[in-house]
Amino acid sequence: MPRSSKEIISLFDSFVIPNYKRYPVALVKGEGAYVWDAEGNRYIDFFPGWGSNMFGYCPAPVVKAVQEQSARLIHVPNSWYTEEQGLWAKMLSERTNFGGKAFFCNSGAEANEAAIKLVRLHSAENKYKIITFQGSFHGRTMGTVTATAQPKYHKGLEPLLPGFTYVPYGDLGAVEEAIDEETAAIMIEPIQGEGGVRVPPKGFLPGLRKLCDDHGLLLVFDEVQTGCGRTGEWFASNYFGVVPDIMTLAKSICSGFVGAAMLAKKEIAPDLRPGMHASTFGGNSIAAAAGIATIKMVEEEGLLEKAKVLGERFKNRFNQLAENLDIIQEVRGVGAMIGAELKVEGAFCVEQCMKRKLLINCTHGNVIRLLPAVNTPFDLVDEGLDIIEDVLRKGA
Ligand SMILES: *Cc1c(COP(=O)(O)O)cnc(C)c1O
Description:
The protein is an alpha/beta fold. Helices cover 37% and strands 17% of the residues. The longest helix has 22 residues. It has a seven-stranded mixed beta sheet, with helices on both faces. The protein contains twelve helices and 15 strands. A hairpin with a 4-residue loop joins β2 and β3. Pyridoxal-5'-phosphate binds next to α4.
C-alpha cells in the first residue's frame, strides 16, 4: 500500500526541516495539466511546478530524452567536454537577441549569483554597486536575497552583502538619481513575478538600456520566470525588444528538471575566467538533454504562439469578471503569465480552489498568479476558470 498524505506528512514532521509552508497534501503523479494526490484526488494545476513545468507534468518528449540520456551518461564534471552541454548552449544562444555564451548551474539563485560575480569581475575595481528594484525577487542565497529588494526576506539575515541600491520599479528618474561613480549594473526582472506580475510601464526597459549605455553599466535581465517561452516569445527581452548584457534562466528551462543558465554577451563572458566560478552539477548531461528537448518541443509544437493565445483566453475572462466583480482591482500579464490583483487578501481563493481540485497561486498577499502549462487544453482552462469565477463571486 502506498503511504497516505497523512503518513507522508508525519515523515516530514520528523525528518524534514520545516522551512516551507506546505499544503497538507502529498502529490504522487502528474500528466499534462493534471496532478494526483496520495488519496487519488485529481487536480487541475494552473501553477505547475511554480511555472517550471512549462508543458505540465511529464511531457513525453522530455521524459524520453531524460530516460535515454540517463541510460547513456548521467553526469560528467566540467573538467571534460560533452556534446549535450555544447549543443544546449548553442540552442539557447541562438534564441536570445544578443547571441552570447552560457554558464550552466542548477537554480535561479545560482544563475543570478553568477551574474553578480560576472558584473564585479567585468567592472573596474571601484565599480561594484548593482541597482535592483523594490518588489523584486532574485533568489535566496545571501547575494541574491540582498539583490531582492523586499525587507521581509532580509529579517534576521543581516549583515547583507554590500553594494546593492534599491529603487522603485518603473521609476526611470529614481534609477538615474541612484547611479553614482561606483555603480556597475542594473539588475531587473523584465516582468516582476513574485512581486505580483508587474509589467513595466512603456519605455521603462528601453530607458534602462539607454541609462546603461550612457553610464557604462551592464544591464542584467533576470528571466528565471519570464524566460523560455513563457511570454509567447523566447525571452521577455525579445518581447520588449530590449537587449540585455547578461540574462539568467532557470524554472522552465528544463521543463521541471533541475537546470539553470546565465548567458552573457561574447565580449563580457570571458571575464568569468577559470578559477573564478564553477558548479559541480552545472550543465549536467541529463539537464542538457531535458533542456534541448524543451527547446525542440516549444518549436515543434508551436508553443510560443500557443502561450499567447492561452494567455489571452485567461486575461479576457479575468477582464470580463473585473467588469462585474468589485473584488478584482486589476488584471495584468504577458503570454502565459497572468496576474489578477484583488482588493482583498487572496489566500481564501487558493484554499477554496484547492477544495474544488484546482491549484493556483497567490503572491504578494493579494495577487492571484497563474503560470499555466502553455499547452493546457482549452476545456481545462475554462473548467478551472469557472471554479475561480465561482470562488471570487462568493468572496472572502
Ligand atoms: C524563482 C525565481 C528565482 C529563484 O530561483 P530558484 O531556482 O528558486 O533559486 C530568481 N528569480 C526569479 C525572477 C524567480 O522567479
